[in-house]
Write a structure and sequence with these properties.
Elements (H helix, E strand, L loop, with lengths): L2 E8 L3 H14 L6 H22 L7 E9 L2 E8 L7 H4 L16 H8 L2 E7 L3 E9 L13
Antiparallel strand pairs: 1-2, 2-3, 3-5, 4-5
Helix pairs in contact: 1-2, 2-4
């Protein structure tokens, strides 16, 4: 493993931005494209938001842990909580399914995460929490061609 980090924070909506900022800094050394960085931050944001809203029912008391490992241009991120767990994971993964209809939730979180990740897994247990794990491989840095140095 080339580098790793762990961040734990209270399950408050304002801390979702903190998680995004930390992952951006962690990835800066591999010089990702704007699109790659945006996709990684979106996956992380969806996982953290799900933990806050669904895992802890926005109680502001639980703890979310984000850990990341980087090997070359591949990152593995794990977002875990000790919240309520997901009652029916297969149903929760269905596009447009949400348990928060009155809160204008789109039900696209898992679909978005799976689309942007190269590998994606969810483990959950009722009353014990949920772990979201994803891997993303970033493209090799390409040198500029056709540019002369003066």
């Amino acid at each position: 493993m080339e580098n790793e980090m762990t961040l734990s924070f209270i399950a408050k909506t304002e801390n979702e931005r903190l998680a995004r900022m930390v992952i951006t800094s962690f990835l800066s050394t591999i010089d990702p494209t704007v699109e790659e960085l945006s996709e990684c931050k979106t996956i992380l944001s969806e996982a953290v938001t799900n933990a806050i809203i669904h895992g802890y029912q926005e109680d502001g008391k639980g703890v979310i842990t984000v850990s990341a490992k980087r090997e070359g241009r591949m990152i593995e991120v794990v977002v875990s909580d000790q919240g309520s767990g997901i009652e029916n994971l297969e149903l929760a993964k269905e596009p447009l399914y949400t348990t928060k209809v009155l809160e204008e939730r789109s039900g696209m979180g898992f679909t978005i995460m799976e689309t942007f990740a190269d590998e994606f897994q969810v483990e959950t247990a009722i009353g014990k929490g949920t772990v979201v794990r994803f891997k993303k491989v970033f493209q090799a840095v390409r040198p500029l061609t056709g540019v002369s140095s003066v």
